[in-house]
């Protein structure tokens, strides 16, 4: 069965475009960089966050391919923790000419709707803008971009726009409807 899939691409072209969200109340949520490149941890975050919204593009990657992604110079994963438990993440992919893509961003389902997402996206976008400060061989960031689609959560697009991302491209295509993979095979069966 096929579905109509809409993909929106959004961008910021200056650090001043970022409109940060307030952090959640209390000091239970902290955001830390995963400084040790770990294919296992990256895959855990990917499946835990994207399992119910049909993230599947990386599921067929080998361990070696996954490790190459997390070891790429300038690639970073920032993780939100709520009381010590991973709640979600932002993955930054450095590209040529001072461009940084937010390739993955989201929350584990149990942590959605708790005002963590806007804060995590704000923090991740700010880290995309100051990426060259942590990677001296990298030129300063000139553009931060991301994409979202009609399969993502109902609040995704509004969150991106509230953080100052502007739409620059829209694609509509027919795609095969896939099963929701869950965080492990059969989790949502």
TrEMBL record:
Under SUPFAM superfamilies, the record lists: Acyl-CoA N-acyltransferases (Nat) (SSF55729)
- InterPro entries for the chain: Acyl_CoA_acyltransferase, GNAT_dom
Top-rank lineage group of the source organism: Bacteria
CDD domains assigned: NAT_SF
Q: Which GO terms describe its molecular function?
A: acyltransferase activity, transferring groups other than amino-acyl groups
- Has the keyword Transferase been applied to this entry? yes
- Keyword terms of this UniProt record: Transferase
Mind telling me what this protein is named? GNAT superfamily N-acetyltransferase
